Amino acid sequence: MTIQLNGEPLDCPEKVVTVTDLLDFYKLDSQMVIVEYNQTIIQRNQYPDVHLQKGDQIELVHFVGGG
């Protein structure tokens, strides 16, 4: 299945089914990421319930600490 991730096509591995799976695949902490799913920001508690489908547009904004 191909989705758009941060504006680029991505062929998802079969094990990536939900937004949580996508974050786990990229080893991203859900507390440090904002997810926009098809142009709508979704809440963290929705990540396990949002199933990815062909053509979905996902934007991930990852916060990085530092100074």
From TrEMBL:
Q: Which Pfam families match?
A: ThiS
Top-level taxon in the UniProt lineage: Bacteria
- By its UniProt entry, which SUPFAM superfamilies does this protein fall under? MoaD/ThiS
Check the record and name the CDD domains matching this protein: Ubl_ThiS (cd00565)
PANTHER family (UniProt xref): SULFUR CARRIER PROTEIN THIS
Name listed for the protein in its UniProt record? Sulfur carrier protein ThiS
Q: Taxonomy-wise, where does this protein's organism fall, top ranks first?
A: Bacteria, Bacillati, Bacillota, Bacilli, Bacillales
UniProt gene name: thiS
